[in-house]
Amino acid sequence: MSVAETPRRAVAAGDWIMRNHIWVFLALTVAVFSFASPYFLTVNNLGNLLTQGAFIGILAVGMTLVILNGEIDLSVGATLALSCALAIGLQTSIGTWPAVIAALLAGAGLGLLNGLVVALSGMHSFVVTLGALIGIRGLVFVYTGENALMVEDFAYTEIAEVYLGPLSLTALVFFGLAAAFQWLLTNTRHGRETYAVGDNVAAAHDAGINVKRHKIVNFTICGTMAAVAGILLSMRLGTAEPNAGRIWELWTIIAVVLGGTRLSGGYGSLWMTVGGVLTLAVLRNGLRLLNTPNYVELMVMGGVLLLALALDRALLTREGAR
Amino acid sequence: MSLHFAALLRRHGLLVAFALFLALVAVQAEAFLTPSNVLDVLRQVSIIGMMALGVTFVVVAGRLDLSVGSMLTLLTVIVVDRTNAFGPGLAILVTLLAGLAAGAWNGLLVGVFRLNALIVTLAMLSFLQGLTLAYSGGSNVNVADGTTWFAAFGRGSLWGIPAPVVIFALSAAVLAFVLKRTRFGRAIFAVGGNETAATYSGIDARLVVFAAYCLSGLTTAIAAIIMGSRVMGAQNTIGQGYELTVLAGVILGGTSLLGGSGSIGRTVLGVAMLGFIQNGLLLMGYPYYVQWLVTWGIIILAVWIDLGAKRGRILA
Amino acid sequence: MTTPILTVAGITKTFPGVRALSDVSFDVRPGEVHALVGENGAGKSTLMKVLAGLHQPDAGRIVHHGREVAIASPLDARTRGILLIHQELSLSPELSVAENIYLGAWPTNRFGILRKRAMREAAAAALEALGCDFGPDVRVGTLSIARQQMVEIARAQAFNANLVIFDEPTASLTEAERAQLFATVAQLRSQGVGIVYISHKMDEIFSITDRITVLRDGTVQGTVETAATDVDSITRMMIGRDLSSYFHRARADFGEETLGIEGLHVPGLVHGVDLSVRAGEVLGLYGLVGAGRSELVEAIFGIRRASAGRMRWRGREIPLPTPRQAVDLGLALVPESRKEQGLVLGLGGRDNITLPHLARFSTLGVMRPGAETRVFDRFRDELSIKTTGPDQPVGLLSGGNQQKFVLAKWLCAEPRLVILDEPTRGIDVGSKSAIHELIAGLAEQGLAVIVISSEMPEVLGVSHRILTMADRRITGSFTGDEMTEETLIGAVSAGPAALPSAAE
């Protein structure tokens, strides 16, 4: 019995590593940078790193839900910029908190719009949200008149200066949202539907799941997350650049895929996404500390992404062979 | 009459809407449909258009290429820098080869190793951005000697037609022929339409996809040569975001992202529409970014109408 | 006498061009295993989809527990206690066993939060009741096919199903798994559940069912008590027509060997197959779904990589080809699935025909549309294909016309060997006999032909020689008078038990 046990346990361990490879990546990168730079493993630097990574992280929370459904949202960067601009621009006319709420609603509304068009037209979400990416950026420029908006009441920028130990408000919000939505994925009906829809849409439909309504909800969540990130960005910077968040949608997708969530849907988790976001942040921060030119960071990212893809392929082949 | 119009709208909805738009702008702004303005618009879209030609092959084969924007940046830096080093002739050769190599790498991973096209080309986007910075050292490069024949590609003209337009039109004509009338083109449609059936017909889908990506790299290299020649220099961000504009042009023309349908003519139309919308809105006094809003609406409407029309036909 | 759980009366269902079900009536009693048998295309799968709510009948009544009902959707069927267990399982591999059992009907509290413990306990109870050796928390993707099937059966248990429909449940099971399944079926029966059991395997039908209903060409041929009948009479009811008048067999005028295969092996799919076919000969390949027939010919054609095997082509030893080389040698493979493997549905008929032969229809890589159109016109007339023109997308044509385009695609290059995999599946009777004529014609022109079919009369009617396959091996070779329904069924339907190694 025990003879048969050992290899089985080894296989299970191998499976665990295959399915959670991102944490191995993360541990490796942390170890390497800790040795390479004395500044890396300091509370101050790690706090900074988390704050920097949290914006992409919050976008990635919403993106993970959409990708688990087998869809994609390219418009999150533009939505972030719009919410950022609204949160600052509306303050003088309607007050600080109403402006923040309006920014949040704008993000939710645009997510809802994306979801409605995807669900009702049957178009590929890549096309729909590519259009939205271009159009929402247009909205941002129309609203800001291509100038950066400045906050007038500097008390607003103080909000983001809340710290819990080394953790900034932004990082706290990221971890809070990731935990909340991970709980939602594992413990609620909507969460389980998210997997069922992305995994085997025919089976989900036959089981009576309203696939269209379900996807609309997840796109709305994704837009809302983008708005949250935009509002936090406006608090942190005190300005709203019309070009804020440009190509962040691509970084977000990279973070999610790096974590191990599968683009075809049905497989992944926010736990993995957190790993992907942190690895991305550690790489960027660590390479910068080492004073490597910034091109190394970009090239390493490309390489790591391909590696993640190859690992995922290996996992699929293994499961297929069973 | 109204019935006919409805049918016309359903079949050629995009063209009808575009024609209405052209008429509307022409009434508002006299300068719009003059030959010199039309040529100017075409010159402006020729770089995006050139890239879109190759990307059309990739999309018809059922794949995606998100790396063309950063590929354009790198290749523009290369052509400018190598012109300073070797002179234009050799520089252009090196650029074309570099474009081919970048495309071949995408093609190897997506076509031969069958990895996800979105992620592979996304990784390539990041990698090429890094390579550009590594190559240029982060600073902009400029053509030292502006008097060589290198200037002809971006700034010259033939019988009054700007050179970029001539290059774009010739390339479009050749590639339209390739896609529509050659074995390779037929294989592209077959692989994009039904890869399994293509394999059962003895077509090597891996090779076909590989070739499509090579072509995409090559047209991007030509676009880079035009770009370098027109700007007489290259910044490290010159092609940022182009990948999405190029895709928007291809989709706007009506080529389906699912693969197996589309044409070069449609892509040229889609890219030209992007250009005329931008130009028309500018002439009517709107700021340039209003075009993005219009593009959003048009993409959604065009694809929706197209899907509806196809569904109608299959049911009928 | 107990009242039936389900009574079906006068069900008719028509698809464009095909009448799939015509006035079908039968009933299922509580605690009964009711077999539904018939050839492929007899209407079994359509009937089962009607019962599961996937199709709506054009006419007829369904009475469930004494009340007339309309089964609107699979969900509706499930809430009524009717559960279909497909060959393609409707499970989400990434979810746990418990979550799959309750897929889409997860127990929640009023805030939409899963009652995980309640779900796990109920799932565990269902699994326990069925004697499953895995728990409710296992991810379904890690289970074997047999265990995944048990998850679906556990759904029936958990939802207190009163009618369970099994569709070829043993197709991919081992002998031990099959015994386990039968025990489960017996258990459901003892609980008073009505069971519809669809299978090709006569030994299974006679060992576990109470009554048998035979379908042919969409009509019920009769319902009999299993104890009061035998394999021969059921087979006769299934086939039920005079074979010789239906089929045209080619003249037996054989030439040299065209293709010879020795020891062909594809890991897990084809085990050590020898095969030889001569010019002018029609070789039938008979076996049940999953026997490895398609995989065998795909390996010959180079679509699947063989790990071992030798090939002789017209007297010459050659390496196993790639699909491109196979086409160039003169092999043609008319695949099983028109829509997935045969045609590019978005392209026109002309482009589909010339797809395997682009080199022949081009000069220096440039296509010659004139030559292409001529070939299109020739085949349109020869095979009387109904299409509006060379550019009409073939996706818009009927199944029979699509199949003719697949044939044209392979015949236009004058091949030496034509392999047809289920050439008449899902097409109407008129087109069927045209295709049988064509097969005979090809052989008489001196081509070698291999026909794969699950339809017994077809394979008996057109072949000169028949190889039977079971469990991914060749199990018999029959010619002349040896070719009868009984011998073929004997050679394939006993399954692994017929092989010496698995003898009881």
Layout of helices and strands, plus pairs?
The complex is a heterotrimer of chains A (322), B (316) and C (504).
Chain A: H1 2-19, H2 21-36, H3 43-68, H4 76-89, H5 91-94, H6 96-121, H7 125-144, E1 149-150, H8 155-158, E2 163-164, E3 167-168, H9 169-187, H10 189-199, H11 201-206, H12 211-237, E4 239-240, H13 248-259, H14 270-289, H15 294-321
Chain B: H1 2-28, H2 35-60, H3 68-86, H4 88-112, H5 117-136, E1 141-142, H6 152-155, E2 157-158, E3 161-162, H7 163-181, H8 183-193, H9 195-200, H10 205-231, E4 233-234, H11 242-252, H12 264-283, H13 290-315
Antiparallel strand pairs in B: 1-4, 2-3
Helix pairs in contact in B: 1-12, 1-13, 2-7, 2-8, 2-10, 2-11, 2-12, 3-4, 3-5, 3-10, 4-10, 7-8, 8-10, 11-12, 12-13
Chain C: E1 6-15, E2 18-28, E3 33-37, H1 44-51, E4 59-64, E5 67-69, H2 74-79, E6 82-85, H3 97-101, H4 116-130, H5 145-158, E7 163-167, H6 175-190, E8 194-198, H7 202-208, E9 211-216, E10 219-225, H8 231-239, H9 243-246, E11 257-266, E12 270-278, E13 282-287, H10 293-300, E14 308-313, E15 316-318, H11 323-329, E16 331-334, H12 338-342, H13 349-354, E17 362-363, E18 366-367, H14 369-382, H15 399-411, E19 417-421, H16 429-444, E20 448-453, H17 456-462, E21 465-470, E22 473-479, H18 485-493
Parallel strand pairs in C: 3-8, 3-9, 6-7, 7-8, 13-20, 13-21, 16-19, 19-20
Antiparallel strand pairs in C: 1-2, 1-4, 4-5, 9-10, 11-12, 11-14, 14-15, 17-18, 21-22
Main location (chain C): membrane
Keywords (chain C): ATP-binding, Cell membrane, Membrane, Nucleotide-binding, Repeat, Sugar transport, Translocase, Transport
Subcellular location (chain C): Cell membrane
List keywords for this structure.
heterotrimer; B: 316 residues; mainly alpha; ABC transporter involved in vitamin B12 uptake, BtuC; two-stranded antiparallel sheet; 4 strands; globular; disordered C terminus; C: 504 residues; alpha/beta; Rossmann fold; 3 domains; six-stranded mixed sheet; ABC_transporter-like_ATP-bd (chain C); transport (chain C); repeat (chain C); sugar transport (chain C); ATP-binding (chain C)
